[in-house]
Design brief:
Blueprint (H helix, E strand, L loop, with lengths): L1 H5 L14 H10 L8 E6 L3 H9 L7 E5 L1
Parallel strand pairs: 1-2
Length: about 70
């Protein structure tokens, strides 16, 4: 937070939830929604900078990357 203040960075957040999370979780748990095909890779959190670079560069065949701590 101090870096944001001293560098005068503006941070904007948003949340677009209408309470649908419980229904989504139920659908995921029941198998009604398949997310595995959307996951391009799983990688350790320490590799995050490289994955963000690749996603930002719009590298082909990348949709979602899960960073695991």
């Amino acid at each position: 937070l101090q870096s944001v203040v001293t560098r005068q960075i503006r941070v904007t957040g948003s949340c677009a939830s209408s309470g649908e999370y419980p229904e989504c979780i139920t659908m995921l748990a029941s198998g009604a929604i398949q997310v595995e095909p959307l996951i391009s890779a799983r990688a350790p959190l320490t590799d995050g900078v490289e994955w963000f670079r690749r996603l930002y560069a719009r590298e082909g065949n990348l949709m979602k990357v899960i960073l695991q701590p």
